[in-house]
Amino acid sequence: MVSREHKRAALYEKLQLLRSITNSHALNKTSIIVDASKYIEELKQKVERLNQDIANAQTTSSSSSDQNPLPGQVTVEALEKGFLINVFSEKSCPGLLVSVLEAFEDLGLNVLEARVSCADSFRLQAVGGENEEEGESIDAHAVKQAVAVAIKNWSENTEN
Q1: What is the CATH number of the domain that holds 145?
Q2: Which of 57, 63, 80, 108 is the most exposed place for a label (fewest CB within 10 A)?
């Protein structure tokens, strides 16, 4: 009898954990599992989109390598307050971080958190929040465009 109650309690705890991980507001087991299934499908779609973006970037960089393309790939995702900015290049790009951070400053973005790797490749993942003192609101497209321009300017300056 104790074993059955223990199993039931353990199952309940696991369902509550699943409910919290998937941000489900469901109360019964079936609804929690349905919400978890939907959440997994959304994650699969995100992974597919990211893999497609990577494949497109690799195709673009290999097919246009003669035309001296921009060295990096930029993605910007709007968050509740700010943006998630990812910059990636397959090669090391000395000085690129400074150019990107200057673009953030020009936009009035405060870097709230950042991870950077500059060894064999260049990776920047940053969370930028809008400067609340400035009145204008910035959209994700404007951030992406500003970072792309900074990369282009950096690329042109390093060629000379």
Answers
A1: 3.30.70.260
A2: 80
Same structural domain, 53 and 74 = no
pLDDT band at 1 (very low <50, low <70, confident <90, very high): low
Shared domain for 82 and 111, answered yes or no, is: yes
- Residue 91 and residue 122 in one domain: yes
Structure confidence by residue, pLDDT tens digits, 61-110? 555 444 445 566 888 888 877 888 998 887 777 888 888 888 888 888 88
Where b means 16+ CB within 10 Å and e means fewer, 54-87 reads: eeebeeebeeeeeeeebbbbbbbeeeeebbbbbb
Listed residue (96, 111, 104, 88) closest to 138, CA to CA: 104
Domain that residue 83 falls in: 70-159
Q: What is the pLDDT of residues 6-30, one digit of tens each?
A: 999 999 999 999 999 888 899 999 9
Cα–Cα distance for residue pair 96/151, rounded to 1 Å = 7
Give the residue among 157, 155, 159 at the shortest CA–CA distance from 74. 155
